[in-house]
Write a structure and sequence with these properties.
With 356 residues, the protein is α/β, with parallel strands linked by helices. The protein folds into two domains: 238 residues, 3-Layer(aba) Sandwich (Aspartate Aminotransferase, domain 2); 101 residues, Alpha-Beta Complex (Aspartate Aminotransferase, domain 1), CATH 3.90.1150.10. 36% of the residues lie in helices and 17% in strands. The radius of gyration is 21 Å and the shape is globular.
Length: 356
């Protein structure tokens, strides 16, 4: 049986990346050592790190005003680390509450300073992206989650603001051409579009750092990590290596223009099937639909459970909706082939014919 990996994260990786990574586990670059065994301060790993950083800077078109870090903790750690580094006790930050992850981020930030909700979509269960933001004049920064994995919404045009824009891009980074320079800080867990779980990408404009009075624990201080070149403590060597391979794969496949073309092709196929078959429905506003995570429902809950059983039989992995939302969720990250989406839409059509 052919498996179709629609997991929301950790998610599908390119086959060539898996092949290279598996070889490196046994013998990394002819050293006779496993990638799992090499020292993180050796020239072997420094080259991996340098190549990964180089790919990030090329894909994002960054200049020397930005630093690239590979850190522990995933995106969730950044919910506290961002305000710890950027928000003083008596200062205010603005957050967009457009889903579960943005809501978690703003709650963490409230431990370090004042937090204002610039916009919220909670009134409609986070099924749209509110465009009219209310941002205080004294706000230190605005935080957004660019793609909402759980609810299936996505920012297709970012807010144009005069204060630093902070982006949690965990679930759509490197999936399309983007003006990354619009952001002063970007963070993203690697496990969706750019590698394996265990490492977090951090891109930060240096001029926003060092402006708060708070004492920051060394391990949480962005400036200390920059000084140490992502090597303040032992990094997740293997996860960084897989990210390096994945970033190089993106470049070799045609970069973000090609990733964006593929994302639209996958999303258009799935959404057009949902729109064409009244048996299925999505509650997400059409203009805010995510190209990464498609959430939809079948009215009859018994049929919805039966559909999920049919998906399991067909080798579709990870399509049950998130526990707070329910329904069906199809995650379509960079490495997912169009053939997997075609297989999903074929099943959707046949299931609707049988039970509609």
């Amino acid at each position: 049986m052919i498996l179709h990996n629609f997991n929301s994260g950790p998610s599908i990786l390119p086959q060539s990346v898996l092949d290279q990574a598996s070889k490196a586990i046994h013998n990394f670059n002819g050293t006779g050592l496993s990638i799992l065994e090499i020292g993180h301060r050796t020239s072997h790993f420094q080259e991996v790190l340098n190549q990964a950083i180089g790919s990030v800077k090329r894909l994002m078109d960054l200049d020397d005003s930005y630093e690239v870090l590979f850190l522990h903790g995933g995106a969730t750690t950044q919910f506290m680390q961002v305000p710890m580094n950027l928000l003083d006790d008596n200062e205010t930050a603005a957050y967009c509450d457009n889903g579960i992850w943005g809501n978690k981020a703003l709650k963490e930030a409230a431990m370090f300073g004042n937090v204002v909700v610039a916009a919220s979509s909670a009134d409609k269960n986070h099924t749209y992206i509110p465009k009219n933001l209310t941002i205080p004049n004294n706000a230190s920064y605005l935080h957004i989650t660019t793609n909402n994995t759980v609810e299936g919404t996505q920012w297709h045009a970012y807010p144009d603001v005069s204060i630093p824009l902070i982006g949690d891009m965990s679930s759509d980074i490197f999936s399309r051409p983007t003006n990354f320079k619009q952001f002063s800080l970007i963070y993203a867990g690697a496990q969706k579009n750019m590698g394996a779980a265990g490492v977090n990408l951090m891109v930060v404009k240096k001029d926003i750092l060092g402006k708060i009075k708070r004492k920051i624990p060394t391990i949480m201080n962005y400036q200390k990590h920059i000084e140490a070149g992502s090597l303040m403590n032992t990094p997740p060597v293997f996860a960084v290596y897989v990210s390096m391979l994945t970033l190089q794969w993106i470049e070799a496949e045609g970069g973000l223009v090609e990733m964006g073309r593929r994302a639209k092709e996958r999303a258009n196929l799935l959404y057009s099937t949902i729109d064409r078959l009244p048996f299925y429905k999505t509650t997400v506003a059409k203009e805010d639909r995510s190209e990464m995570n498609v959430v939809f429902f079948i009215e009859d809950e018994n049929l919805q459970n039966l559909f999920l059983e049919e998906c399991k039989k067909a080798g579709f992995i990870g399509v049950k909706g998130y526990r707070t939302v329910g329904g069906i969720r199809v995650s379509m990250y960079n490495a997912l082939p169009l053939s997997s989406v075609q297989a999903m839409t074929d099943l959707m059509q046949s299931f609707a014919q049988q039970h509609g």
